[in-house]
Automatic annotation (TrEMBL):
<keyword id="KW-0813">Transport</keyword>
<protein>
    <submittedName>
        <fullName>ATP-binding cassette domain-containing protein</fullName>
    </submittedName>
</protein>
<keyword id="KW-0547">Nucleotide-binding</keyword>
<dbReference type="InterPro" id="IPR013563">
    <property type="entry name" value="Oligopep_ABC_C"/>
</dbReference>
<dbReference type="Pfam" id="PF00005">
    <property type="entry name" value="ABC_tran"/>
</dbReference>
<dbReference type="InterPro" id="IPR017871">
    <property type="entry name" value="ABC_transporter-like_CS"/>
</dbReference>
<dbReference type="Pfam" id="PF08352">
    <property type="entry name" value="oligo_HPY"/>
</dbReference>
<keyword id="KW-0067">ATP-binding</keyword>
<dbReference type="InterPro" id="IPR003593">
    <property type="entry name" value="AAA+_ATPase"/>
</dbReference>
<dbReference type="InterPro" id="IPR027417">
    <property type="entry name" value="P-loop_NTPase"/>
</dbReference>
<dbReference type="InterPro" id="IPR050319">
    <property type="entry name" value="ABC_transp_ATP-bind"/>
</dbReference>
<dbReference type="GO" id="GO:0005524">
    <property type="term" value="F:ATP binding"/>
</dbReference>
<comment type="similarity">
    <text>Belongs to the ABC transporter superfamily.</text>
</comment>
<feature type="region of interest" description="Disordered">
    <location>
        <begin position="255"/>
        <end position="280"/>
    </location>
</feature>
<feature type="domain" description="ABC transporter">
    <location>
        <begin position="5"/>
        <end position="248"/>
    </location>
</feature>
<dbReference type="InterPro" id="IPR003439">
    <property type="entry name" value="ABC_transporter-like_ATP-bd"/>
</dbReference>
Length: 318
């Protein structure tokens, strides 16, 4: 069967002060139904831009996007609107993404009104059902976002994302703003909801432990490109691209009960996506760089079943 979501050779270039920022530069991935694909990388790698392109909140410069077999770029307005209902996003800052003047009833119920799915009593009942799903209750209906803790506010954000009964939820740094002790609770809630509702997630985070805990498949992004992709456990156990290696070795140990404590701290700063280095974009920071790396762009090589990486070292007969 066709995957739920597919991005092929996605490109997004922005014009900024006379230069072109190559925020996303040829990214391909698929999200199977009921599975989680993680996108990990430092800030500036293009992860959030991919999130916005996937939801068509941004228009790609080029590339193909499909959802449930429908070409998202060719879809007409009405079709796009119907598809939007099935794709939702949970943002990093739950307070920033919830209207401070809206009561919970309206914050969670708004998508139901916007899409004409329920109103009045039916809408209220549906909101209560959604709140209960995320561990809140009818008592919270009349409260405002600021009356909640960060973790509770993010639960409201998740309830809102669930309102339209989506198939895909994009989580863009959805637990990054939360205290470490609260992160695991929200991650476990997301996992439970996935099992109960058959959701697919595009799970974006800079925190390796969090991505590892959540994802079936992982894509490692560097300066607008996916440099390595594959089964999460295999990739974290044995990273093949030097950048993935650097990220993984910067995290002391993986402990699902203790997510978020260790942050990747690779050496050197990521260069700007407005002037990506020649050849392999990672070459100025790569401990294994050799002559060709500064001139030739590496192509994607299969490194194991279902795993690929873009590095000259992985060429079979180099
Ligand atoms: Fe390092 Fe060269 Fe591989 Fe790039 S292509 S990751 S610079 S070894
Ligand atoms: Mg971001």
């Amino acid at each position: 069967p066709a995957p739920l979501f597919e991005a092929r050779d996605l490109v997004k270039h922005f014009r900024s002060r006379g230069s072109t920022v190559r925020a996303v530069d040829g990214v391909s991935f698929t999200i199977p139904r009921g599975r989680t694909v993680g996108l990990v990388g430092e800030s500036g790698s293009g992860k959030s831009t991919v999130a916005r392109l996937a939801l068509r909140l941004l228009e790609p410069t080029s590339g193909e996007l499909s959802f449930d077999g429908v070409d998202l770029r060719g879809a007409g307005r009405g079709e796009l609107r119907a598809l939007r209902r099935r794709m939702q996003i949970v943002f990093q800052d739950p307070f920033g993404s919830l209207n401070p003047r809206m009561r919970v009833l309206d914050a969670v119920g708004e998508p139901l009104s916007v899409h004409g799915l329920a109103r009045g009593r039916a809408r209220r009942d549906r909101v209560v059902e959604l709140l209960e799903r995320v561990g809140l209750s009818a008592k919270d209906l009349t409260k405002f976002a600021h009356q909640f803790s960060g973790g509770q506010a993010q639960r409201i954000g998740i309830a809102r994302a669930l309102a339209t009964d989506p198939d895909l939820i994009v989580c863009d740094e959805a637990v990054s703003a939360l205290d470490v002790s609260v992160q695991a609770q929200v991650l476990n809630l997301l996992k439970r909801l996935q099992a109960e509702l058959g959701l697919s997630y595009l799970f974006i985070a800079h925190d390796l432990n969090v991505v590892r805990y959540m994802s079936d498949e992982v894509c490692v992004m560097y300066l607008g490109r996916i440099v390595e992709r594959g089964d999460g456990d295999a990739l974290f156990a044995d990273p093949r691209h030097p950048y993935s290696e650097m990220l993984v070795s910067a995290v002391p140990e993986f402990d699902p009960a203790n997510t978020g404590r260790a942050r990747p701290a690779p050496r050197g700063e990521a260069p700007s996506p407005s002037r990506p280095p020649s050849g392999c974009r990672f070459h100025p920071r790569c401990p294994r760089a050799f002559d060709r790396c500064s001139t030739d762009e590496p192509v994607v090589h299969p490194v194991a079943p279902g795993r690929t990486a873009a590095c000259h070292l992985l060429e079979v007969d180099r």
